[in-house]
Amino acid sequence: MAITLTERAASQIRQQLTKRGKGVALRLGIKKSGCSGFAYLFDYADEVQADDQLFESRGAKVVVRQDHLSFFDGSEIDYVQEGLNSTFRFSNPNIDNTCGCGESFSLKTQEQNQEL
Description:
By secondary structure, this protein is an alpha/beta fold. The protein has one domain: Hypothetical Protein Aq_1857, Chain: A. Helices cover about 20% and strands about 45% of the residues. The protein is built from three helices and nine strands; from the N terminus they run βαββββαββββα. The chain has helices at about 5-20, 70, 110-115, and strands spanning about 5, 25-35, 35-45, 50-55, 60-65, 75-80, 85-90, 95-100, 105. The chain has a four-stranded mixed beta sheet with strand order 3-2-5-4. Strands 1-6-7 form a three-stranded mixed beta sheet. It has a two-stranded antiparallel ribbon with strand order 8-9. Strand 6 and strand 7 form a beta hairpin. It is globular and about 35 Å long.
C-alpha cells in the first residue's frame, strides 16, 4: 500500500499547513458524485484518527481512512497550475474511466463501488 507525492504536491501541502497555522497532513477521501460515479475529497487533518492510515512522502504527510485505502493504492499526487486554476492531480491506477469534465471517475472494481 503506497501513496506518493511529487515535490510540487509536498511543497503545497507544507505551505498550506503553515498558512493555516495548524494541522498535520492533507486528508484524502472519496465520495459518490458526478456522472462517472466518484470524486476526490480534500481537507486538512488536524490530527490522525484511529481509523486513518498515515503516509509520508518528500517531507509532507497524507492521511486516508482505512476503508478508502484500496481506492488510492499506488497513486501519485501532483499539484498543478493551469492558468488561474490550481489543484491536486492524481495518477491513480485504480481508475477505470473519467467523465468528460474530469471531475468524477469510475473505479476498476465494481465490488468496491458498492462498499462506499
